[in-house]
Amino acid sequence: MAELTATALDGPRGTKPRKTFSRRNILLYGTLIVVALYYAVPLYVMVVTSLKGMPEIRLGNIFSPPMEITFAPWVKAWSEACTGLKCEGLSIGFWNSVRITVPSVLISIAIASVNGYALANWKFKGADVFFTILIFGAFIPYQVMLYPIVIMLREIGLYGDLGGLVIVHSIFGMPILTLLFRNYFTSLPEELFKAARVDGAGFWGIYFRVMLPMSIPIYTVAVILQVTGIWNDFLFGVVFTGPEAYPMTVALNNIVNSTQGVVEYNVNMAATIITGLVPLTIYFVSGRLFVRGIAAGAVKG
Question: What Å distances lie between residue 187 and 118, 202, 232, CA to CA?
Fold first, then answer.
């Protein structure tokens, strides 16, 4: 009884509960809400405009929801809008972007992951110099290298072809991906690598049986970074390919900046949303792994 009385006199113990509407929470969530609105409002305007007809758009109220929903702008953006001399919409550019993105992502990630694995676990003479040169290449402005690359692709017969653009994207994606993979493999327990070596596993055995199964988060990061960068690229697409091989972003630019006829804002908005659906979908599907991988790949230099 005496102990219970003493405990009651001492008062409640444990961590003091925080106020729901404290100054810190108001500032934090207020900032997050403002930032979210900054990005969400333009997206909302794009979506509602793409679902309106031109007579309703001419009324001028861009924030109002559509009085009558129509998907005709989406159909026209996909298959009928003029992207130059041809009026076939974004469909051709979409498949060109797929043919560019898929091999570029696979090649760059495959090579960069092996590079990062070798630099982290199989030290060789000059490894640090090689890594420094590789990372230095990630900070060279792309514009400086455009003309030399044009000359090189022309000499090997790949200028204006999708294959040449695949090579360019694969090479330019390698430095930053190598850095991410190296840092991630360095963060893994070294005992796993040593144990595999003791068991007789070689370079490729350790890579495929030990490192690869443990590296799903960093592979997810690499896929998202490469798909986003390559799919949204405009500069390389317009410089290194011809009209028949233009990626989706170049086709979108031709639709939006067309000077012929009436400017169809609903078609332009629909075309813009269609162009961004692929990287957005990939990110939303694997966003949690992206956060894990980018954090793990950035802890060690």
Answer: 14, 20, 31
Task: Give the tens place of pLDDT for each residue, 261-299.
Answer: 678 888 999 999 999 888 888 878 776 666 666 665 554
- pLDDT tens digits for range 126-177: 777 877 887 777 777 878 888 889 999 889 888 888 889 999 999 888 888 8
Q: In angstroms, what CA-CA distances link 37 with 30, 33, 42, 264, 272?
A: 11, 6, 9, 26, 19
Whole-number Å distance between alpha carbons of 109 and 127: 20
Domain 91-296 of CATH type 1.10.10.10: no
| Nearest by Cα to 113 from 196, 31, 28, 176 | 176
Torsion angle defined by CA atoms of residues 201, 202, 203 and 206, in that order, rounded to the nearest 10 degrees? -10
Give the integer Cα–Cα distance in Å for 244 and 232: 18
CA 87 to chain centroid: 29
